[in-house]
Amino acid sequence: MMKKSRRSFLKVAGIAAIGLGAAPAMNFASTNAAHPVKSKNQTALTAHRWGMVIDTNKVTEQVVEHVMEACHKAHNVPDFNHEVDEEKFPNTRPVNHKQELKWIWEEHFKYAFPDKEDEFLAEKFLDLPFLVTCNHCKNAPCVQACPTQATFKREDGIVLMDYHRCIGCRFCMAACPFGARSFNFRDPRPFIEEISPGFPTRTKGVVEKCNLCSERLAKGELPHCVEASEGAITVGDLEDPESEVRALLNENYTIRRKQSLGTEPSVYYVM
Amino acid sequence: MLEIAIKGSKSYWLWIVFLLAVMGAGAFVYIDQYMNGLMITGMSRDVSWGFYIANFTFLVGVAAGGVMVVIPYYLHNYEKFHRITILGEFLAVASLVMCLLFIVVDLGQPTRVLNILLYPSPGSMLFYDMLVLNGYLFLNIVVGWKMLEAERNQVEPVWWTKPLVYLSIPFAIGIHTVTAYLYCGLPGRGYWLTAILAPRFLASAFAAGPAFLIILCYLIKKFTKFDPGWEAIQTLAKIVCWAIIANLFFFLCEVFVVFYSGIPSHEAHLTYLLFGYHGYNALVPWMWTALILMFTGAVFLIIPKLRNNKTLLPITCGMIVIGAWIDKGLGMISGGFVPSPLHHVTEYAPTGKEIIITLAVYATGFLILTILFKLATQVKEEVNG
Amino acid sequence: MTKNIILTGLGIFVLAVLSPFWFNMVTTTQAKPSPELLGKAKTEKKCVLDKYDMRANHMSLLDEWRDSVVRDADRMYTSANGKSFNMSLSTGENSCLGCHEDKAKFCDSCHTYASVRPYCWDCHTNPKEIE
């Protein structure tokens, strides 16, 4: 008898504790359910499926440098070559360059397109810099792999990351066939020369990658890489036949990375 | 029953203290990892999983291997296994706890781990892996405990333990199948992208698990008054024999397909593991060691005279466990990441800190194993003696 | 006999459980915080919700906001009182810190007092703190 009543007491107490914990959230939901409205900025750029066309003829070493710098600076991507300010970040341990982070970077043809490696490749392609980044695949393996939906596909086709939710399991990094993802093996802040206030930094222990400047599209601006590329990069709506990207795809011969895997990358290269 | 665990000989307590010391050292290093991030490991942008996930994969196999004593006893009424089924179940429990710990220490944000439950993602294989691993752990704890309790009280086990035992069989296959699916469903990783990965995982599991159990039986016989029985060990040895042959055969199939078809994105990984790739060959000696150990082990187990040799058998089993550990742990994970999807080569080796944390997880598992085995053997001594 | 032991034990338990109170009685209690409304926030008067609702529920609101911004791309919030806001902690005029200009005197004063350490600022930055 004693045992039973203690048990039922604990049960009731447990349920009561859950109730107490949930109360604030429920209050909040009940008081505010009615009126507030969430909406997009009126100036926001929208698309059915965002895509990118990179004109390899216009990509020079200089363009690559500008694009990388614009992107990485604006998004507070740490640079492991940056000399750490000892005053602000005392006792920072030495870096392991293999643990670097990057959103958009340069590769040679045979690395950007390993399945198209060619013994007798036209010489002009051999040393040409190719810009590679997240492909915002239509069938993104990283989205499929993520166990918390921290990586997800937005309605407009952008593959995005919710850094608040990422548990750092790195399954998405194993899943990505393009090596587009980087992991914060350590706190990135000591390696950011100047923190850009327009975008948060990341915390240690989460994965990150190109977000197609969704924070800029929301304000009606085009991505940083487009602006810095001197016309080499075009971003637009792949589903809209009237869009600039579709015009480029119509007029030029384009290739995509690892097309045979069926992930349907949204980044095209004009050859 | 737990009171049994707090009465023991001096060597028992020395062993416990030793395990606790290793766990303490690991906890200390883990604090460093928790504060400073996974930078303390040898992992990198290109090799984003390392020693932790490798050991996780191997131990899922050891846990699944426990089913190789459950099936003969419960499905085929093979009485000789009566004395050791509980050992298989408890070995699974300890292995699974280690698996879960390895997942947690591998996370970049371990405090957010419950997000897996808060935002369940049925598209992710990791979601199912969590379900089957926890399910199998739960089943083994309940079944093992209830069976042992019944044995101690000399009564029939409660009726509902039987259906749970039957349920645990598909779960055992499930944990290792789903763990293989984590890898073999990824489009860009040629080494893992093969339908034979799950069967190969199971084969090596059914070799490494029972082989480890044989070693444990020898230790039990040495340190306690309980004798698991030579015939049971002999049967286990035959199971190990066929499983390791199957594993080698599956590996051979893999080697044939990869090299005969010659598709570069598949070939590069095996070339790296077996012969070195573009001058990088850190894993080559390991892989050949693993193959030689497994092959020699298989030969020793096929020949009855060698299999029946009581001194040689534990050594053979040790060779097979180590071989499977290298093949499935080191080779399987690093091999999948080298070369990277862009065909860059970044090699991986665990750091000292990573190894200490790994040893601490093993120490935790062995602590659980020691206590559970002590309970089991003591109860059996009481009943039989 | 056992009754006495149990009662003494219970007594000690109750004393121990209430230890924070004893601790506060013998030490000087920190004055309760008074977050200051400075700059724009002072003249503006109206926030997303009324004062008490905000005090109790700002964390749930922020949680809702971050999901909306990150996952649905909806960045404008028109609240029940008709005002609209840019759903952002720290970017732009119309964000939280855009109005509550002094993070230390607004956010931190209460959080420090209550020993709450939200990890917002592990990633988000206070524009004022970047020199």
3D architecture notes:
The complex is a heterotrimer of chains A (271), B (385) and C (131). With 271 residues, chain A is of the alpha+beta class. Chain A has helices at residues 2-32, 61-74, 109-112, 123-126, 141-145, 171-175, 214-217, 224-228, 244-251, and strands at residues 37-39, 50-55, 104-107, 130-133, 151-153, 159-161, 182-183, 207-208, 233-237, 254-255, 267-270. The mean pLDDT of chain A is 88. With 385 residues, chain B is mainly alpha-helical. Chain C folds into 2 domains: 1-30; 36-129, no CATH class. Classes of the chains: A alpha+beta (271), B mainly alpha (385), C mainly alpha (131). Chains in contact: A-B, A-C. The interface between A and B is large, with 52 and 46 residues.
The count of β-strands of chain C is: 2
What CATH first level of chain B would be assigned? Mainly Alpha
- The first-to-last residue Cα distance of chain B is 18 Å
Order of helices and strands of chain B: HHHHHHHHHHHHHH
From the alpha carbons, calculate the radius of gyration of chain C and give it in angstroms: 21 Å
Secondary-structure blueprint:
The complex is a heterotrimer of chains A (271), B (385) and C (131).
Chain A: H1 2-32, E1 37-39, E2 50-55, H2 61-74, E3 104-107, H3 109-112, H4 123-126, E4 130-133, H5 141-145, E5 151-153, E6 159-161, H6 171-175, E7 182-183, E8 207-208, H7 214-217, H8 224-228, E9 233-237, H9 244-251, E10 254-255, E11 267-270
Parallel strand pairs in A: 2-11
Antiparallel strand pairs in A: 2-9, 3-4, 5-6, 7-8, 10-11
Chain B: H1 10-36, H2 51-65, H3 67-76, H4 85-106, H5 115-118, H6 125-152, H7 161-184, H8 197-223, H9 230-261, H10 264-274, H11 284-302, H12 304-307, H13 312-337, H14 352-384
Helix pairs in contact in B: 1-14, 2-4, 2-7, 2-8, 2-13, 3-7, 4-6, 4-14, 6-7, 7-8, 8-9, 8-13, 9-11, 10-13, 11-13
Chain C: H1 2-17, H2 19-26, H3 39-44, H4 51-72, E1 76-78, E2 84-86, H5 96-99, H6 103-113, H7 120-123
Antiparallel strand pairs in C: 1-2
